[in-house]
Automatic annotation (TrEMBL):
Residues 96-332 form the Radical SAM core domain. Its cofactor is [4Fe-4S] cluster. CDD domains: Radical_SAM. The lineage of its organism: Bacteria, Pseudomonadati, Thermodesulfobacteriota, Desulfobacteria, Desulfobacterales. This is Probable dual-specificity RNA methyltransferase RlmN. Reaction proceeds by a ping-pong mechanism involving intermediate methylation of a conserved cysteine residue. It comes from the Bacteria. It comes from Desulfobacter postgatei 2ac9. The active site is at 90 (proton acceptor), 337 (s-methylcysteine intermediate). It catalyses: adenosine(37) in tRNA + 2 reduced [2Fe-2S]-[ferredoxin] + 2 S-adenosyl-L-methionine = 2-methyladenosine(37) in tRNA + 5'-deoxyadenosine + L-methionine + 2 oxidized [2Fe-2S]-[ferredoxin] + S-adenosyl-L-homocysteine; adenosine(2503) in 23S rRNA + 2 reduced [2Fe-2S]-[ferredoxin] + 2 S-adenosyl-L-methionine = 2-methyladenosine(2503) in 23S rRNA + 5'-deoxyadenosine + L-methionine + 2 oxidized [2Fe-2S]-[ferredoxin] + S-adenosyl-L-homocysteine. InterPro entries: Aldolase_TIM, Methyltransferase_A, RlmN_N, RNA_MTrfase_RlmN, rRNA_lsu_MTrfase_RlmN/Cfr, rSAM, rSAM_sf. Specifically methylates position 2 of adenine 2503 in 23S rRNA and position 2 of adenine 37 in tRNAs.
């Protein structure tokens, strides 16, 4: 038995054709799964009974068991999902003014070993399947619908949960296919989905060639010595290689790459660092998201004072850099950037 959520529309169409069933039936099934959020084959009432029976014989409809859900004072919700093999991942549902954003995981654990990130402490377990990636979106939309809210109001996705999306490239790409499918899939707008990477340079270029999606890059430092000490990935693709890949990244003329920059007190938050950041990014169509460090017991770093954060931001703005301070939501339930762990480490 296979998880039907692990099948692209193309895969499913071929499976149907091999069975002598016309392809449009596969499109119907796909729509039930990814748009109408069905949770059984019986629900798919525009298919004949025989076909529904056949589907149930060959496939199961993968579910992510909801092990726990926490709600923040700011209404952000964190879901802890238990996967079929007992691994855990988290996703975070963030209410905005007029829509919801879902922060999605692509791996159980993470292998990148960034020194400031709690997910790193769990180590790497495994890549998520496409079914497990799109399953997080399906489940969150089902949750929204259960609250009596239009499920498509979950309109934005950030691949900023656990794991390195570009290290699970094939499943990421297949998932994006379902997410962007406006005919039979999840109908997300390309402008509303962002993939964030710690900086796997060759995969950045590849992503721009293979699909159209917003790119975010976790930069976090302006010189190689510091960046390598914080993010081991920098030893393989140092800042020059990373930024060269960003320049090559194909995007619409008006789009910009988001550079995430965690502000850590006394580490990377001086005026000189801000000037360096402007210098590095000025040749690139870039905007900067400053993320005040979310403190946790597993890392020694501290969040800078509000004055320091504002001074840093002001330098960027005065140099005509597009920049904002990103408010991490869900801090009180460990749902903020860098706080996902999905396992008990104390
Ligand atoms: N692996 C991808 C996706 C994870 S995104 C990536 O690195 O981009 C998670 C974001 O949170 C990254 O920008 C990371 O730099 C940031 N982050 C990690 N730990 C953090 C912390 N403790 N406080 C604030 N931001 C953090």
């Amino acid at each position: 038995m296979k998880d039907i959520l692990d099948f692209t529309r193309q895969d499913l169409g071929e499976w149907f054709e091999n069975k002598g069933i016309r392809r449009f039936r596969a499109d119907q099934v796909f729509k039930w799964l990814h748009l109408k959020l069905a949770d059984s084959f019986e629900e798919m009432t525009d298919l004949g009974k025989a076909l529904r029976g056949e589907l149930a014989e060959h496939f199961f409809l993968g579910t992510l068991e909801l092990e726990n859900m926490e709600t923040s004072v700011d209404a952000t919700k964190k879901f802890l999902h238990r996967l079929a093999d007992g691994e855990y991942v988290e996703s975070v549902l963030i209410p905005e003014k007029e829509h919801y954003t879902l922060c999605v995981s692509t791996q159980a654990g993470c292998a990148m070993n960034c020194k400031f990130c709690l997910t790193a402490k769990t180590g790497f377990k495994r890549n998520l399947t496409m079914g497990e990636i799109v399953g997080q979106v399906r489940d969150a939309r089902r949750f929204v619908a259960q609250q009596g809210i239009e499920p498509l109001s979950l309109s934005n996705i950030v691949f900023m949960g656990m794991g390195e999306p570009l290290a699970n490239y094939d499943n990421l790409l297949r998932s994006l296919g379902v997410i962007f499918d406006t005919d039979f899939g999840m109908k997300f707008s390309r402008r509303k989905v962002t993939v964030s990477t710690s900086g796997i340079a060759p995969k950045i270029i590849q992503l721009g060639l293979d699909t159209e999606v917003n790119l975010a890059v976790s930069l976090n430092a302006t010189d190689n010595e510091l960046r390598s000490s914080l993010m081991p990935v920098n030893r393989t693709w140092p800042i020059e290689a990373l930024l060269a890949a960003c320049k090559e990244f194909e995007m619409k003329p008006r789009n910009k790459i988001t550079f995430e920059y965690i502000l850590m007190s006394g580490v990377n938050d001086s005026d000189a660092h801000a000037h360096d950041l402007v210098r590095l990014l000025s040749p690139i169509r870039a905007k900067v998201n400053l993320i005040p460090f979310n403190e946790h017991p597993q890392a020694p770093f501290k969040r800078p004072s509000r004055d320091r954060i504002n001074a840093f931001l002001t330098i960027l703005l005065n140099r005509n850099m597009t920049a904002i301070v990103r408010k991490s939501k869900g801090d009180d339930i460990s749902a903020a950037c860098g706080q996902l762990k999905a396992a008990r480490i104390e």
